[in-house]
Amino acid sequence: MSSAVKRFDYQQLLQWSNDCLEQAGASGEIARNVSFYLLEGDLLGFSTHGLIRLLNNCQWLRDGSSRAKGQPVVISERAAVAHWDAQLLPGPYVVPQAIESAINMAKQAGTGTVVMRRSQHVAALASYLSIATEQGMVVSLMCSTPGQRAVAPFGAKQAVFSPNPFAVGVPSSAQPLLLDISFSMTAAGKVRQAKADGVNLPYAALIDSNGQWTDDPTTFFAKPGSAIGPLGGEQLGYKGYGLTLFSEIWTMALSQFGRRQGSADGDANSVWVQVIDPTAFGDEKEFLQQVDDLLEDCRTATPIDPQQPVRIPGERALQKKQQQLQQGLEYSESTLKVLNRCAEFTGIPLPAAL
Amino acid sequence: MSSAVKRFDYQQLLQWSNDCLEQAGASGEIARNVSFYLLEGDLLGFSTHGLIRLLNNCQWLRDGSSRAKGQPVVISERAAVAHWDAQLLPGPYVVPQAIESAINMAKQAGTGTVVMRRSQHVAALASYLSIATEQGMVVSLMCSTPGQRAVAPFGAKQAVFSPNPFAVGVPSSAQPLLLDISFSMTAAGKVRQAKADGVNLPYAALIDSNGQWTDDPTTFFAKPGSAIGPLGGEQLGYKGYGLTLFSEIWTMALSQFGRRQGSADGDANSVWVQVIDPTAFGDEKEFLQQVDDLLEDCRTATPIDPQQPVRIPGERALQKKQQQLQQGLEYSESTLKVLNRCAEFTGIPLPAAL
């Protein structure tokens, strides 16, 4: 695959994706945000949730699945929480707003929480974390997908849940800690990618209709299909199952928008945003020192492989971002196919590779 | 082992453990709380964090590692958060107070958070969840142990973290959802129990000093010892590692009391308590309906084994509680040894078995 990788200039892609979105009907502000945060996903290495999703975003704007202008509606508010209806505005437009609102509440109340129903697809949660960490704030993000069933509860071979991501951002004296994981054994995007690339998954993450674990991504698209296993797998999958229930309740039940309401909403998400102001608990420098100490303990722990020291979540993503900003963003052949389809859809040619 | 199980009356054990704690110096209110919540752990089936910890609690009260009277000190407060120094008061005394305080904040602000340093050992987080769920509140609890290193970061063979539990409680129209899991492949208490029982762990949860995975609990007590692996193991341990960092930052870094401060504090914990008032986001009945719908989807998912329908977290624990309240609490031979040592320590004989 790597032989077919091509590189593209960041600024050119930003302009191109912005133009595609505007061509599909987005307001200038929406186009700027969606293009910026999709590219941020690619920069950080979340290639299944980066510009590969631009075509979807343009299609949704064109067919009305995504609103092209407007603002989220506030359903309810208290000093430290708000409940918004995002009315199918694009996730990369409403999530940063929710984080900013949560930051403002946290500065006053210590924490700020925004629960949001009907955000159109949020793409990579990791893309948004630095909005909070750059202001010295601690943040956690979760989302779920009322229109999707892909992950089985522990002990089941039938999908009930979406593969829900959980992301946290924490400032330190140096780089922030950026974590973005799912509570399942893999993400649906990775299964799609493996099928597109014609390869098996790196391990048996799926439970097929016979109740057997498998690494074959094609089983996921069969009828009846396989389901993604919860984190922890055969032995400890009750933990991933519990964490998935946690994420579905904190997103869908609190926003009162679950699978009975949003089954026809495609990739739209119910979203949890919580910001914590560490200075509500004490001195900022002391907090940063605590984070530094913890990360130092990890970095200096004896590695299993002496050549592979322990990494901090986000470390490699931030390296990748710097590298791609300098040398261009890398896209695989299968992703380039989707980008070229977006160029056809909008009539705006993809910039030339570097 | 089950041949050696004995049963004891709940009320008699409650009185006995209360008397032991008072004999060790605890105030009446502290004795009542510690005995009640340790027994609650046993009732729910968390036998490594139940009355087996009474001897420790009595010893700590006697030698001053745990304070026998007093109240937590408020370090800082905002509308939705508080930071408390528990001053080594017993966990089962201060955690319920922190939850009540968080409930009061949540009723006003939508959420309430209490971060607490220097709580003496909190035992089973599951024991406290119903304080919130019985008031219609959603709750999450986490703790970490500055004096303990038992869990390795992903890619390391050296322990850095404590095996941190994460617990959530959610009301439904029927029984609440009660989840209490660790972010590691097992808990230190389970490794101790396996060693005491002379059995191997049910799977390879430990990484030995050669970097090999093992199910042998004796390796954990060797020099150099093995470390508990993060949830996700060899393939997905970066997820358990990330979740452990999340729990250590939300507990130790926010309370500004980590391993540089509390390395000599034994089993004392840094604690995170967060309560969410679902009525801050909308109608209470609609929230309960959302939870009911989600749990119904889990219960009716096709099981891998037709004889084993999918269970809801807490379901078996609440059954076990009802059963043990009626038929007596069950204790294994190895736990009874510890209870008898506590009887000797305090001079108060253990009640007779049923």
UniProtKB/TrEMBL annotation, chains A, B:
<dbReference type="InterPro" id="IPR036111">
    <property type="entry name" value="Mal/L-sulfo/L-lacto_DH-like_sf"/>
</dbReference>
<dbReference type="Pfam" id="PF02615">
    <property type="entry name" value="Ldh_2"/>
</dbReference>
<dbReference type="InterPro" id="IPR003767">
    <property type="entry name" value="Malate/L-lactate_DH-like"/>
</dbReference>
<dbReference type="GO" id="GO:0016491">
    <property type="term" value="F:oxidoreductase activity"/>
</dbReference>
<keyword id="KW-0560">Oxidoreductase</keyword>
<protein>
    <submittedName>
        <fullName>Lactate dehydrogenase</fullName>
    </submittedName>
</protein>
<comment type="similarity">
    <text>Belongs to the LDH2/MDH2 oxidoreductase family.</text>
</comment>
<dbReference type="InterPro" id="IPR043143">
    <property type="entry name" value="Mal/L-sulf/L-lact_DH-like_NADP"/>
</dbReference>
<dbReference type="InterPro" id="IPR043144">
    <property type="entry name" value="Mal/L-sulf/L-lact_DH-like_ah"/>
</dbReference>
